[in-house]
Design goal:
Elements (H helix, E strand, L loop, with lengths): L1 E6 L3 E7 L5 E8 L11 E2 L1 H23 L4 E6 L5 E3 L9 E2 L7 H8 L4 H5 L8 H11 L1 H5 L3 E3 L1 H10 L3 E3 H4 L5 E2 L4 E2 L1 H6 L9 E3 L4 E4 L2 H6 L7 E3 L2 E2 H8 L7 E6 L3 E7 L11 E4 L6 E7 L3 H11 L3 H6 L12 E3 L17 E3 L7 H24 L7 E5 L6 H11 L3 E4 L6 H12 L5 H4 L5 E5 L6 H21 L1
Parallel strand pairs: 1-5, 5-14, 5-15, 9-12, 16-22, 22-23
Antiparallel strand pairs: 1-2, 2-3, 4-7, 6-8, 10-11, 13-14, 16-17, 17-19, 18-19, 20-21, 23-24
Helix pairs in contact: 2-4, 10-15, 11-13, 13-14, 13-17
């Protein structure tokens, strides 16, 4: 048996799989997020540990015999968070999360520092880890001076499980302290961020053992004392492992709270000015690139709150098949935007509203706006030299065939809907554990799920959607000017 743990912003999921990688049992537990000031987003790591305790207790009660056969554990976690520990391993302050924007000034300064983009392979976004520590240095100097180690959320869970400080490459690539091409901490980047090498965890590949389960946890959970804990992964890299997106051009469109267009890369080909993320993959010798929009299904959820109609009902009003773009235009910048704008200040907008605008037109505009933003991501990724050729559509928004067909037509690519099953970040973490335990190679273990349906682009509507996207793209500078 193998255990995958996926620490998301809203909760933790524990997934038990067998030696064939088939899910055996799954438990989810929620975690609370605090917003102590506008633009701030924090979480107490004690929430994660408590959620893990509850999840493991439930798994032990349900599958005690299977838990006794667990050989390895992998952890996936939300990226970029800063967990600051003192010399005794104690948490100094709540974790500053990926969606916290307080360090926008520090991010801009670090991004403008000579050599930073070249070594990190990325724009330094406000959500990254390095600017958070510079913010602490300026605003919480006493806590900053006591920082002995900085861990990402998955790295902190590794520490809790093993007592050792280690992290994987994919997660660490989102700190702006890692030389992403060389897959190692950069002295120059650390110095630019006012940090030291001894404050960093040891680096391992995601499918490489980093430590063994602490004896007291093994005893509590009915496991043997030789259970290994692998490096694990950042959440998107883990999701890519879960759907077999390792190689060049293979990837997914994820319609979750945020939107992600991700592809594997067989080499290192950064282009920071495009606002595409270029990160190490969770397996050796591979990288991945992704464009990120900050509000995908979150845009539809926002419209749902405004109208008092559920997202599913809004989607159902449009049917399943597209018939061309609407005149109403929506810009999904409800929380700013990453790819391709790197703009934390821009905000969303509706354009071309008139007295005849109804709810269905607004829903269509929201879905099209997200599709146009995903086209922005595809254009940015394409500028790095990769050709997208095999994409899955995943996430809650993929339940809307209308939305998937809109995106397929906008991208000019077929999108595969996977067969019903479990293929998320928790499965990716479990697969990393399987490779670490010697069950097989990444290519053997991290296979693509079966395809239930392929949504083809509507070739006869491609010209109309292309024209609408160009109009959408031209509105950003004007909207930015007044927000």
């Amino acid at each position: 048996m193998f255990l995958g743990l996926d620490l998301g912003t809203s909760g933790l999921r524990a997934l038990l799989v067998d030696e064939d990688g088939a899910p055996v049992a799954s438990v989810s537990e929620s975690c609370a997020v605090a917003h102590p000031a506008p633009g701030w987003s924090e979480q107490d790591p004690a929430e994660w540990v408590a959620a893990l305790d509850r999840a493991m207790a439930a798994l032990c009660a349900e599958r005690g015999a299977a838990m006794a056969r667990v050989r390895a554990i992998g952890v996936s976690g939300h990226m970029h968070g800063a967990v600051c520990l003192d010399a005794a391993g104690g948490v100094l302050r709540p974790c500053i999360l990926w969606n916290d924007t307080r360090s926008f000034a520090e991010a801009a300064e670090l991004d403008a520092t000579e050599g930073v983009r070249g070594l990190s392979g990325n724009i330094v976004f406000p959500g990254f880890t390095a600017p958070k520590l510079l913010w602490m240095q300026r605003h919480e100097p006493e806590a900053f001076d006591r920082v002995a180690k900085v861990l990402l959320p998955a790295g902190y869970m590794n520490f809790h499980l093993t007592g050792a400080y280690f992290a994987d490459m994919s997660d660490s690539a989102g700190t702006a302290w890692l030389d992403v091409g060389a897959r190692g901490w950069s002295d120059r980047l650390l110095t630019a961020g006012a940090m030291r090498p001894d404050q960093m965890p040891a680096l391992v590949e995601g499918c490489e053992a980093g430590g063994t389960l602490r004896p007291e946890l093994a005893e509590r959970w009915g496991m043997t004392r030789d259970v290994i804990v692998v490096g694990g992964a950042g959440d998107n890299a883990a999701a890519a492992c879960g759907v077999g997106a390792l190689r060049e051009g293979a990837g997914f469109v994820s319609l979750g709270t945020s939107g992600v267009l991700l592809t594997g890369r067989d080499g290192y080909a950064p282009r920071p000015d495009s606002a595409v993320h270029t990160f190490c993959h969770a397996v050796p010798g591979q990288w991945y690139q992704m464009g990120v929009i900050l509000a995908a299904t979150d845009s539809l959820n926002w419209l749902s709150r405004i109208t008092g109609v559920t997202p599913a009902a809004l989607s159902q009003e449009l049917g399943e098949t597209i018939d061309g773009p609407g005149r109403l235009r929506f810009l999904p910048y409800l929380s700013g935007e990453r790819t391709p704008h790197n703009d934390s200040h821009v905000r969303g907008a509706f354009l071309n509203l008139d007295v005849g605008t109804d709810r269905a037109a607004m829903t269509q505009a929201v879905m099209e706006g997200v599709a146009f933003a995903m086209r922005d991501c595809a254009e940015a990724i394409g500028s790095t030299g990769v050709a997208l050729n095999s994409l899955l559509a995943i996430g809650g928004g993929a339940a809307s065939r209308y939305w998937v067909e809109t995106i397929a037509t906008e991208l000019g690519l077929p999108l595969d809907l996977p067969e019903a099953g479990d293929f998320g970040a928790a499965l990716g973490a479990a697969r990393l554990a399987m490779v670490g335990a010697g069950v097989g190679s990444p290519d053997e273990i991290m296979t693509r799920p079966g395809v239930a349906q392929t949504i083809e682009p509507r070739a006869e509507l491609a010209g109309a959607y292309d024209e609408a996207w160009r109009a959408y793209r031209a509105t950003y500078p004007a909207v930015r000017e007044v927000t």
